[in-house]
What does this fold into?
Amino acid sequence: MLKNLQESPLLVTGAAGFIGSHLCQALLSRGCKVVGVDNLNDYYDVTLKQSRLKNLEKFPNFQFHQLNIHDRNAMEALWQSYPYIYHVIHLAAQAGVRYSLKNPYAYIESNIMGHMVILELCRHRQGFQHLVYASSSSVYGGNDKLPFAVQDRCDKPISLYAATKKADELISQSYAHLYQIPMTGLRFFTVYGPWGRPDMAAFIFTKSILEGRPISVFNYGEMRRDFTYIDDIVDGILGSLESPPQPQKPGDAPHRIYNLGCHQSEKLKDFIGIIEDAVGKKAILDLQPLQEGDVPATYADIQASQQDLGFAPRTSIREGLPKFVAWYRDYYGV
It folds into this structure.
């Protein structure tokens, strides 16, 4: 696996992030050379990002650069110093639906300008082979048809974060068409697991239950999410790396979009119950209405990713959440 990717380095943006650090470790463990980029911003605890990096720096074939992806000059200088990068996995972005209501400019800088910088680097690299980039299930907006399929309309985003991710997909389509750059966009569905983000449900709920504080449960608990374990997401990314899209007919853009989800829409109440069992303590629930920018349910149709990428999620929340809780207790010593 990945034999054709071991000769030249791969660029991974967002390397100190949750998904990025897991992906880097998987690539490095398979003998790949990885150039990691991350700005280490303070959207959440920077020490967690630094701890992830320490795990990666144990590998001699890992090189890290602290940069903002929307900084054109810095990224172009980096790109010129690695003339043999022909594969990019672009995961860096300003994350979070709710935070986009507070700091919209961060999303335009990172998610739009940053994506453009990456596209421009790729199109000017002779022999460039494949760009894999992160999209999000948020692009489906208020769609009430379940499961969400890639061919469903996604033109009514209900958050700025979702709008920037959909914009990335559209800009990528135009670049793939104009310059025949093979690109794969991956719509991630609520990723969780060890080393996860502190702004995500598994982390927030585990921390609050252990500390005996109430947890905010939106839509009065009537939420459903397609929770996807990090190892399954990494397998999907690796599968996409090995399967660059090809034009189906003359003039077709080599650009494909896939869902990466568990293909299970779980009740939030069940999700909380599994964490309670793993922690050994009941949660204090603070039931609240649906928040602006949130959707009541997500559910991934993964038929295309199964067929084209060999994607086969294996980890249910009943197996994955106890692993997260065990990591949390070990990392924080609680």
Remarks:
- The domain at 3-191+227-263+297-314 is CATH 3.40.50.720 (Rossmann fold).
- The mean pLDDT is 94.
- The radius of gyration is 19 Å.
